[in-house]
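B., you asked whether I could sanity-check this one before it goes into the benchmark set. Here's the sequence:
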Amino acid sequence: MKKYIFLTLIVCASFRQELKGQQFGQKEILQDLDYLYESLIEAHYDVYAYVTPIDFRSNYQRVRNSITKDSLSLLETTNVFQKVISAVNNGHTEIDFPGASYGAYAHSGGTVFPLEIAFENGKSWVRKNFSDHQEIQVGTEITHINGETMQAILANIYPQVSAERTYFKNAKIEMYSFPRYYWQIFGEQDTFEVDLVLNGTSHKIILNAINLIEGYEMKRNEVLNATMTLRIDDTAAYLNPGNFSGDEARYQRFIDSSFVEIKKNQSKNLIVDLRNNGGGNDSFSDYLVSYLADKPFKWNSSFTLKTSQFLKEHTRKNNDTTQIFFKEILRHDNGEVYDYAFDAYQPQEKEKRFHGKVYVLVNRQSHSQSAVTAAQIQDYNFGTIVGEETGDYPSLYASQFQYALPNTGIPVKVSKGRIVRVNGSTKSEGVIPDIEIQDHLLDEKDEILEGLLDRLNHN
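And here's what the prediction gave me:
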């Protein structure tokens, strides 16, 4: 099932524009570019948190001056706009990967680069091989593609990716996948000359492109694959809550039933897996944490919002303004930053809660609310964090809202809020595990879980 999720979404997306060869005129694009730049400044919580006003404007002018053609395709236009929004250096302020264009390309029989790549310690490693060269093993270092160093290739991709730092940009490229991004920047190619390090020596290999659908998408699974799972053995109960989104009643039923089973089996150790998790809503995560907590808790130490005329107009058109959250947006003055307080969440009744040792697994693909939740558990000492540093910050600019650019209709996501983790730290870093174990290659070999189980079995 997972193999089809991304492809189904992009093929079913509104890519008919692309199939019909729709072009946007230069005037339309420039108008939308100006609208994007100005709306980011007005609506973002703090657009200059990670970039200076001079650098942000210089980048915008540079991108604007690069638009010299009379018209651009949807893909070309998306690429242009991403270069402006990514300069904010905020992972939650973004224009998504161009799925509509990718879907149209897939539908037309397109091909892609046949290797998925992981980025670790400044090097690029093969994490999946879909080519017909089986001598290229998972874990092989790749140094060049078509004569370009991997560093140079990534430097071309980075302006399309919104993130606070290189570590997170690399994680997002892994998440969406390198073959997709390589196509986005370099287009369709029939063959690739690849430089690899095999058995300690450099080798050049010519790889053929593979069919996007049958050769790639139908054979792979997404990196973000959090799925509701409960397993119990003699060492520990293993609980993956899935993403913090979707059918909330169903989610709560799963959490409730899981802790009934965990209690029935008298498990002394509980492993909560927040890896490869896309995040979601605090109401989901707090419900999980209520089974681990021994006192009332919050998911942040501070949650503030900035309102603006732009946000107010968007709110009136798109939200239920009888709700307190949206009422507050409308009530405050334009440009005002204000606190939005959350009540403390109560733990479950004592007999329902888990009273053993809790371990929470994270990796660089623990995104958004999953990173915030790991930090919450760490800061309250509700559990021990195990794995590698998250790509996302637990103190971050988020609380996204989305609007479309007026001429092209391209969706834009912007952070209107600022979240500070429970312990009040605003360091520019992810969640740092208490026990560090690297998730090498993000592949089927589970170094983090196996490493933790080995520790538990030897204690």
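One thing to flag: The longest strand covers residues 411-420. Otherwise nothing jumped out at me.
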